Amino acid sequence: MALSLQEMSDRFEIQDMLYQYADIIDRKAVDELNDIFTADAHIDYSAFGGSVGDRPSTLAFLKEALPAFSASQHLNANVQICVEGDTASGRVMCFNPMEMPLGAEKQVFMLGLWYVDTYRRTSDGWRISSRKEEKSWVFNVPDFMAL
Fold first, then answer.
1. Which of 14, 63, 117, 145 is a good FRET partner for 53, with 20 to 30 A between their CA atoms?
2. CA distances to 117, 120, 139 from 12, in Å
């Protein structure tokens, strides 16, 4: 199936927004997510014990939760996007190592997950209108080092 120029442009714009999301999270610049999520977005981070709710409650949760991690990298891959006019759906693989200080030591967790999303074209560009995390796996580096 050949893609139209509009669909190619839409897919690139959505992918760019997804990479911006990852960068915002890793920089802990939570307020910038107002430019990523629609005002009526529903976000479900419950797969890893996080919040479920609207944009304001999600941003409040992230402002509280993210400082617990001294470093993280959200690496997105296998971005699958289906555009239908001014809406789209997507499934995005994410590999997410996260470092947490524990006194003088550091704990490193490796998370494998998928984001299952819906997107909406707005007057300001594409935005995430819903996001749900699906857990694939969790790996604790100190547990491996003890083997």
1. 14
2. 16, 14, 31
The sign of the CA dihedral 20, 23, 25, 29 is: negative
Q: Helix, strand, or coil here: 50?
A: coil
Give 44's strand partners: 52, 132
Angle in degrees, CA 116, 55, 89, rounded to 5: 25
Q: In 1-147, at which residue ranges do the beta strands (DSSP E only) sit?
A: 37-44, 52-54, 71-72, 75-84, 87-102, 105-122, 125-140
Q: Return d(Cα 117, Cα 115) in angstroms, integer.
A: 6
Structure-token pair, residue 70: 């001294």
The yes-or-no verdict on residue 144 having pLDDT over 60 is no
CA distance 95 to 35: 23
Residue with tokens 């939760």: 65
- Nearest in space to 101 (alpha carbons), one of 142, 61, 137: 142
**How confident is the model over 126-135, as pLDDT tens digits?**
999 999 999 9
Distance between CA 21 and CA 30 in Å, rounded? 10
pLDDT at 46 over 60: yes
